[in-house]
Amino acid sequence: MKALITGASSGLGWDMAHILSTMGYEILAVARREEKLKQLQEELQTPVEILCCDVTDEAVCRALAERADEVDILINNAGFGVFGDFCSTELEQEMAMLDTNVRALHMLTKLFVKKFKEKDSGHILNVASLAAFFPGPLFGAYYATKAYVLRLSQAIAEELRREKSKVKISVLCPGPVHTEFGAVAKVQFGTGKEEKTGRIVLTSRDVAAYAIEKMLDGKQVIIPGWPMRVAAALRRILPDKMLARVVFLIQSKKCLKK
After folding, report:
1. Is a pLDDT exceeding 90 seen at residue 121?
2. Contacts (Cβ under 8 Å, ≥6 apart) of 185
3. Average of pLDDT values for 125-141?
4. Cβ–Cβ under 8 Å, residues 2 and 70
5. pLDDT band at residue 178, thresholds of 50, 70 and 90?
6. What domains, with CATH codes, occur in the chain?
7. Which of 173, 231, 224 is nearest to 203 (CA)?
């Protein structure tokens, strides 16, 4: 058994690699930080092949897809966020985010689904966010990328179901998680009390374990933590304008102080 994980050098990708290794999976770990990949390679119990590359490069995605015959699980975890008012954020940063969160994920999903369908087996886990369900003022482009991931995954899942394919695609939609994401996006999540209880800001390890369990069970949309599942359900009650106002108030408190 073998799993290919993008963004494997930290956060959810790192923890998913550890969990799958304990389950007996060999790991193809993909990321740009070679030193972190080498550290991962030393820590895992099963064989680990490290692939230091940039998934926004189409040639890289096509090369990774050539390994699909030996892969049982693809986890599209690479991604990051750009926080700030839409008119003040850097266009170059947002384009890089779109390339990673949307374009690279789209290419890998498409290439691997086609290969997996040929052998009629395989799991794909696309990492989105609870943000996928909401408008996201002050985080607008990031929220939009995750909405793309969610809807694309759901659409593909229905196509596979109608074809009676054994290939399964799931989408992970976590709320705040303790990872490097916040530092990269220059935001902070939760209060001290929330962090101690772990009820709002979940640990990366717990989210990773829950995601893998539900993915292997064939669950399509995976939302860790009951507060986040309640939040996703409540979005159906409020109109989008009200949701945008609520999200703005929440986001405005997240900016890291310089």
Report:
1. yes
2. 80, 81, 82, 83, 139, 142
3. 95
4. yes
5. low
6. 2-251 (3.40.50.720)
7. 224
